[in-house]
Write a structure and sequence with these properties.
The chain is mostly helical and about 290 residues long. Helices cover about 50% and strands about 5% of the residues. The protein binds heme C. The site of heme C (HEC) has 23 residues, from helix 7.
């Protein structure tokens, strides 16, 4: 309020340029503030990678999704949950129905209560969610030096340029620069805000063995898991794109026919000619 009155005063006294100058000053101060904030955050922005699935008409690379899921299961799942994904959602995306059934069956799921009020364990079913590594957040924190490994289902949506970020984070571990003190249990990663992350570098060359023979370098695994996590964050995206193609085609036809119909209906009115002929009225009376 005070600022507004102040600006109004400036406007009345000195006209527009002063106000404009004040506004520019205000904006640049705000800009400087946010830049300082980022400097303090000590973060490197990830480069943009050409993800195949980000095109308007392109689908996921499903072989990469399958490899990415393998990386999740064999590496990330020991610390991170994937609680919004059910086994059955993998059917037709990365695995066949039978593969998914077998995979789910290997997991013990806590169910119940049964008739006598007790919880019991049963083999997993395709409708179960992915098993979480820890029974609760506290256990997760205790096992990781106080930092809870966040759920990965929506991670790609939860960070700016999520897929790029995951790729850069996983491949970005390096020696801390001279002068940067690292507390024990923290690892230097320039892509993580602050530079010190509690996640030890999770990927190693040949850390997994891909069944399709792809060489499992760190960057290959990071690329695959980044694509898999893009899928988990938006499993419906392919259906949505496919539907958009259908709907937009039909809409285009409807727009064309509506336009044609409108011109057809209006053509008698738009093309009629009204003529007033002077003097004939009086003449015909006499
Ligand atoms: C040894 C346990 C462990 C493993 C294995 C692990 N992580 Fe983590 N991860 C963590 C912890 C702990 C954090 C929290 C870090 C923090 O807040 O400092 C974390 C955080 C993250 C974050 C979030 C970073 C942010 O911006 O907040 C991402 C993304 C992530 N991990 C991805 C992965 C992926 C992908 C894998 C598998 C390739 C993986 N992690 C394997 C422990 C692990």
């Amino acid at each position: 309020m005070i600022a507004a009155t102040h600006l109004q005063g400036l406007f009345l006294k000195n006209g527009l340029p002063v106000v404009a100058a004040a506004a520019v000053a205000a904006i640049s101060t705000a800009g400087a503030a946010s830049v300082t904030l980022l400097d303090e955050d000590d973060v490197v922005h990830p480069p943009h990678y050409p993800w195949r699935h980000q095109g308007y008409f392109s689908s996921f690379d499903h072989a990469a999704l399958r490899r990415g899921f393998q990386v999740y299961r064999q590496v990330c799942a020991s610390c991170h949950s994937l609680q919004y994904i059910r086994f059955r959602e993998l059917v037709g995306v990365t695995h066949t129905t039978q593969e998914v059934k077998d995979m789910a069956q290997d997991v013990d799921v806590l169910d119940g209560p049964n008739d006598i009020g007790e919880m019991f364990e049963r083999p997993g079913k395709p409708y179960d969610v992915m098993p979480s590594p820890y029974p609760n957040k506290e256990t997760g924190r205790a096992a990781n030096g106080g930092a809870y490994p966040p759920d990965l289902s929506l991670m790609v949506k939860a960070r700016h340029n999520g897929a790029d970020y995951v790729m850069a984070l996983l491949t970005g571990y390096c020696e801390a620069p001279a002068g940067k003190e690292m507390m024990p249990g923290l690892y230097y990663n320039p892509y993580f805000p602050g530079g010190a992350i509690s996640m030890p570098p999770p990927l190693q060359d040949a850390g997994v063995e891909y069944e399709d023979g792809t060489e499992a370098t760190i960057s290959q695994q990071a690329r695959d898991i980044a694509q898999f996590l893009s899928w988990t964050a938006e499993p419906e995206s392919e259906d949505r794109k496919k539907n958009a193609c259908k709907y937009l085609t039909v809409l285009a036809f409807m727009a064309l026919s509506a336009g044609y119909y409108k011109r057809w209906k209006w053509s008698p009115l738009k093309t009629r000619q009204i003529a007033y002929v002077k003097g004939t009225h009086g003449a015909s009376l006499h």
